[in-house]
Design goal:
Blueprint lengths: L1 H31 L1 E5 L5 E7 L2 E4 L15 E2 L3 H6 L4 E3 L5 H8 L2 E2 L1 H5 L8 E2 L3 H10 L3 H8 L27 E2 L3 E2 L4 E9 L6 E8 L5 E7 L9 E2 L1
Parallel strand pairs: 4-5
Antiparallel strand pairs: 1-2, 2-3, 5-6, 7-13, 8-9, 10-11, 11-12
Helix pairs in contact: 5-6
């Protein structure tokens, strides 16, 4: 009987060591999924692994391309809508109010330059955005899994927001002839142009009142947020 007890106690000890090892490995894997990257302006961004991809969890804020070339800041609506060169702005032209939370708005000409993201990163293609939404179960439900929860930034009801991916999508609004939709909608450029039009490029939109991610073609002169993905 004593021998059986010793065997039983030894078995429990081995199981405990095994479970501790597994838990430790899981914690290490979780920690490995979180990182940071810094742009040429010195802005630091958290990153997260989602499926096979590594994404920034914040909107881009840089005012320069990664080779140090400045991007034109265009505060005037007329200059913005008529411009066909790379440009950026802050929502409502207020860096102090919007930069830290929402990042900058860029036209697609800045995206097409190919050097907008930090070295080793790039603006995702239309296909890479589709890989992300497919991994999350499709466009119809991916938005809720990407959105920041609560109403600190999103207007109510912030439908089905769980942020289970850690992507922390925020409603940075847009710029066309004027500024619109902050708090309600987020728009993110892809680097892919619409082959059927010389004026349109693909983007993704997530709204406060939906759980889906919408794929849309928009004017290349529009000002949208940018999320970078690792090469």
């Amino acid at each position: 009987m004593k021998k059986k007890n010793r065997i039983w106690i030894l078995s429990l000890a081995i199981i405990g060591v095994f479970l501790t090892f597994i838990t430790s490995c899981e914690e290490e894997d979780a920690n490995d999924s979180i990182g940071t990257v810094t742009d040429i302006d010195g802005n630091s961004y958290k990153t997260v692994t989602i499926g096979t991809q590594i994404w920034m969890t914040e909107n881009l804020k840089t005012t320069k391309f990664n080779d140090g070339t400045p991007i034109s800041l265009l505060p005037q609506d007329n200059d913005w809508s008529r411009n066909d060169e790379p440009a950026y702005c802050w929502y409502n032209n207020s860096m102090e109010t919007y930069k830290d939370s929402y990042g900058a708005l860029y036209n697609w000409h800045a995206v097409y330059n190919g050097s907008l993201c930090p070295t080793g990163w790039h603006v995702p293609t239309d296909e890479e955005w589709t890989i992300l939404t497919d991994y999350l179960g499709g466009e119809s439900t991916a938005g809720g899994k990407l959105k920041e929860t609560g109403n600190a930034h999103w207007a109510p009801p912030n439908t089905d927001a769980t942020n289970e991916t850690g992507f922390t999508a925020l409603p940075g609004g847009l710029r066309s002839d004027d500024f619109r939709n902050i708090g309600e909608y987020g728009y993110w450029w892809t680097s892919t142009k619409d082959s059927s039009s010389t004026f349109i490029a693909w983007c993704r939109m997530i709204g406060y009142d939906i759980e889906r991610v919408n794929r849309r073609g928009e004017s290349r002169n529009a000002g949208f947020s940018v999320r970078c993905i690792k090469d």
